[in-house]
Amino acid sequence: MVRRNTPPGSQSSLREANRARLVESLKRHGRLTQVELAGSTGLSPATVSNIVKELTASGLLHTSITSRSGRRATLVSLARQLGLVAGVHYSSRQLHIAIADATRNVVSQTSLPLPLDHRHDAELDRLSLLLSDMMESLGGTVNDLLAVGLALPAPIDPRTGMVSTPGLLRGWEGVDVAASLTARIGRPVFADSEANLGGLAEAREGTGRSAASSVFIRVGHSISAGLIVGGDLFRGGNGKAGQIGHVTIDENGPVCRCSNRGCLETYAAGPALLSLFPPNSGMLRLSDLIQAAESGDGRSHRVIADAGRHIGIAVASLCNLFDPELIVVGGELAQAGEILMAPMRHSLERTALSSAMGLPEIVGASFGEWAETRGAIAVALDHVTVDAESLPVSA
User: Which fold has domain 209-365?
Assistant: First the structure.
């Protein structure tokens, strides 16, 4: 559809800008009431109401009645028929895939285990087939996907699309992962680290939604963090911001996969914790460790608690530098709940600089093991073009 050229500063230009601002707010936040839309866009309630009516009539938006604080309100979202996006999360040991509509409603999802040292070529080939099968089951094809978001267990350099630090994800290095998947499926793909996208999901629609700044700590086979400021990710110059797993705990400690010594991961990540048990103990995965701790096994409980203390010390340093309002804990080990988080709080209280407002609250992730996948859905929707400006402007 051809966009009309409207003179800058004209009434038509202002209307187009206001409509685009409202649509971008819905892409970012999902469903919002008209009052919330007015707050997020800075537009007057009357302007929001008029734009919502106009775009609902055109089929771009969907409205429904909800109750907020005991009052009826009009809930607004993008129309589902705008199309589908996919969110994909490769963790170190698991693959999660979800397909969602423009309202972030998941219409299909699946997960499956991964070999420990998986490689990009074999896994992206398999992902292409899985996406094709999932879309076929929905009555479509991969070509019907508007975009794909991809979460990986390593920092991604936003300038190159490659893993930014050697040694953190062998088998995936030196490859523009998003471009490689795009070449396979012919759809736009946007990649980022799992911690960043987990943090994005929690900030956009989860526990961190009301916080101006938050940290998502992902604890599993590896340890990393996503830093959120004003609802946006802070990635740093090379995409390495938030690599808390490679904060030095002991400069004479064990050699880490990053080639340094004594990193947090060598004391508190999955492989380090499981290595504390004999080979015949049945401790093969973090889920085994968590189940044993919850069943009353004292050694398992102690191992997780010690990990929480180590992580809390590193988080205290992060708080002294970044000063977030909230800390959200996700990843496989987060399923241990208070066994992990209570020692984290103790270390934070003992080590972090205090303030008049107190220390950040530490809470569990809203979306559990699907947080990173939901963040991948969010980043895919961020890159979907919704052309509100091409719709006719009412007189």
Answer: Nucleotidyltransferase; domain 5 (3.30.420)
